[in-house]
Design goal:
Chain lengths: 386, 386
């Protein structure tokens, strides 16, 4: 298989890793957070906004792009990078998660999944081979095999059967990618639900198939947080040290810190942009719910020590006014800030690992966010914007 | 009265004027178009976007800011320039037009207008004195007296009575502004409806009161276009040559060209931003309705020779995709382009006047827009975003 990326492990601190992924569209310093560009647009943000926020790589959803505008259109227009005017790396998922969670499924079989488009009712078949074909048409730097996404909770039996299918689909995806001479990196996805033995088996068997990196899927779907951290650690330590690890759809700032310290390199989540559109802003001292009356005459920036455009130029009072009156500028400014915050946190984590002081960083991080948290709790994470 | 601005007449070409307004917040080259920042935000655009588009001055609506967040809040936070992070000139209207067109009016009397807030039902009284006080609290560079805005059509008698009241209110506004030692420039508003004799009288009597500049109000409210142009010319030629002239709430690109050639210096309209949100884009060859299927695979920029961010970086196909999926980025990019187009047109008009070739410019402008216009007709203009 053509390897579309290389990974260098630059430093470690306990299980945590400071690394570098090199792709055909440039370098990604890890650990990294990937803003979610669901439909080839990170909601409310332009490419220049993402660059200003420090974004190195974005995710796009195969499912959403399959529905609109369709992979053929994007291929004709030169691929996803040209289409969305983003010249840095792009990662696409397989479409599986959204098909299982959003689409009206018609049939699931060993072949794949048939579903109707919620947009126009047309029938689509997503097989492992078709998902690879679509992702190759989109032209992302890192792509994924179709996997079966089980709802939580699921029995051991059901999870085991689902895992077996995911592994068979992974083999087919790998073969399809190789047959087409795909230049993208193909990550394997480790499933196994909330069962430790199945997670271990999933990791071992996925690694045995051989991929360019490994994603941990099926997390943050309702299982308790301690279990999620434990399973993440269990899987991460069975993955090859010389390849990148990606925890799909996670998560809150505290989840990123916990998963990085357990050896995860890459993350994606709609939390920063979705919460921004709900007026919830991330800060090192916990969330700020901007609509609150307490901010109506607050001339301070959203976050004192933040150098994003929203914090450099505007007051909480103005941001609150924009949000309360539902001005479109509110969504952009709050999204800018939240994405900037997530990417800044990852930069801080990278530095802490490189300097082997992640423990002290974690202590300070949790002290600030727990002791000083002044506002309402944030929405729980989710991985799709639609 | 303290004059908050100076006006220099730099060149003329027929009735058209190339001028320069100098304010405490910088210089405005005229003729100029002012993007409308209804609630202290030009919809979907940030101050940096406006600067990039070439905006020299923006308008904010006293009525909308009175309702939310209230003039007291804005004053406490340092005034409108600080509040909205816009350090260039700002013009405010008196609130009259929106009270008459949007609010549930309780009573109109010689004193002023009482109305209920559509936001929270609270009762507000807008008198000439109160409007000046609010606008002084907002801290705009150019402010306006409360005027009575008559619906079109109106009888000669009704228009005459309304004009008389507008003139009495203008006198009170002028006195209130002087008494408070206001440093803003106060423009008079010339009403008179669709009646030539009343427009002439309105111009003469408003000029006799003495203001820092003159607005032409009550236009583009349903009267035929030729009449609007005629009345504009009639009023403009009675206004002092050494003061700026502002045609309120106008208009389409062709209206701007016609009114400039009749001696108007300043314009505002929500057309560029509102139409952008409806997917209608202005180009020198007429409108592009971006949702049309013909643009689905169109890799060209929205306008070939445009150097705005939307045209430099994205294809029609991508803009169409964003608009069809109602991505927030669509509204910003299309607004950016439209505002850029309006401001570019004004820059072209300034240069044509300076070079005394406005006639040739008009010919070419109308040839392109009429002969080549390929898409649907645009929405009619309107002056409030709400």
């Amino acid at each position: 298989m053509t390897r579309g990326i290389t990974f260098e492990l630059l430093a470690t601190d306990g299980a945590a890793r400071r690394g570098r992924v090199t792709t055909g569209h440039g370098v990604v310093e890890t650990p990294i957070f990937m803003p979610v560009g669901t439909r080839a647009s990170v909601k409310a943000l332009a490419p220049d906004d993402l660059v200003a926020a420090g974004a190195q790589i974005v995710l796009a959803n195969t499912y959403h792009l399959l529905l609109r505008p369709g992979p053929q259109v994007i291929r004709e227009l030169g691929g996803l990078h040209t289409f969305m005017a983003w010249d840095r790396p792009i990662l696409t998922d397989s479409g599986g998660f959204q098909v299982f969670s959003l689409a009206k499924i018609r049939t699931i079989s060993e072949t794949g999944v048939e579903f109707r488009s919620p947009v126009d009712g047309t029938l689509h078949a997503l097989t492992p081979e078709r998902s690879i074909e679509i992702q190759q048409a989109l032209g992302a730097d890192i792509i994924h095999p179709l996997d079966e996404c089980l709802a939580h909770p699921a029995t051991h039996d059901a999870t085991e059967q689902s895992l077996a299918r995911t592994l068979r689909w992974a083999r087919r995806s790998r073969a399809a990618h190789a047959a087409a001479g795909g230049s993208a990196a193909l990550f394997g996805i480790v499933q196994g639900g909330a069962w430790e033995d199945l997670r271990a088996r999933a990791a071992d068997e996925t690694v045995a198939l051989g991929f360019d990196g490994y994603a941990i899927g099926g997390m943050a779907v309702g299982e308790p947080k301690p279990l999620m951290y434990e399973l993440t650690a269990l899987v991460a330590e069975r993955l090859p040290a010389d390849q990148p690890r990606y925890l799909m759809g996670v998560g809150k700032p505290e989840d990123l810190v916990e998963a990085v310290s357990r050896g995860v390199d890459m993350f994606d989540c709609v939390l920063p942009t979705r919460n921004a559109r709900n007026g919830q802003c991330f800060t090192p001292d916990g969330p700020v719910v901007i609509k609150h009356a307490r901010y109506a005459r607050d001339g301070r920036p959203l976050q004192e020590d933040c150098d994003c455009y929203a914090c450099r130029r505007f007051s909480r009072a103005y941001l609150r006014h924009l949000f309360v009156t539902q001005e479109l500028l509110a969504f952009r400014l709050l999204s800018l800030h939240n994405v900037h915050f997530f990417l800044g946190l990852m930069a801080d984590l990278r530095q802490a690992i490189a300097e082997r002081r992640l423990g002290a960083f974690k202590t300070r991080f949790f002290e600030r966010i727990c002791v000083l948290s002044a506002d309402a709790s944030l929405d729980s994470e989710s991985r799709t914007e639609a």
